[in-house]
Amino acid sequence: MVRENRTKAKLATGGVAFGVTVGPNDSDMVEMAGLMGFDFAMVDCEHDLFNESALAGLIRTANLYGMTAIARMQNNFELALHALDGGAQGILVARVKSADDAQAIVNATKFQPEGKRTIFFRSRGGGYALDIPSPEQWTLDTNAQIMAGCIMEEIAAVDNIADILAVPGIDFIDLGPLDLSHSKGWVDQAGLDQLVHKIVSESVKAGKAVVSPASADNIPDLLDRGFRMLTVSPVEYFQSGATQFLSRGREILASRGISQL
What we know:
Number of domains: 1
Number of strands: 8
Number of helices: 12
Order of helices and strands: HEHEHEHEHHEHHEHHEHEH
């Protein structure tokens, strides 16, 4: 039996999914997030150093708590296949600039008739072939649960946004504002806001879920703008909390005349 994709199910009914952004070695963080009730874990296999065994362990942790494991990566057919065969239920590809790039993502993540993924159901992604009604039915059921996404982070993506969004099988959109600004020669904030607004509004209009980092304070604004996949970063939480802790601690030490040398 193909495992239900909790995040995709929520989005299909108009709901909002909450996720954590982590590195491939952050299984403990994913376990904690699962216990807290987060819906998905977005695993950075693009920037972080990792081996595939570490990724498999993190995916397994996510599965234990019913979380959707989404692997963020470069546009690499083989790496996507390994992640999916290892049990990931989503692939997010960076630096997507054209409809051809988007189609390559669908080809890598979906079986026929939607894509060109090769069949192997004796791995954990196929439940070790223990409950396969038929190979054909398994591919169809799996297609229904897998999510394919792309990151728009270059000006070429904005120029080609209509063609990218028209590719069948793309489920969700992420964006990289800093890279987007960088690709256009560091536009001012007003210009960047216009580009971001175009990506978000066009994606929502096309029926795609859109990802955004979130905080307890900006959730209402993000929902009003159409975002439906909201993420937090344990690293950013630590940076923020630890900075406040050190600042307050040093104030108290200074008030008591305690040396900080």
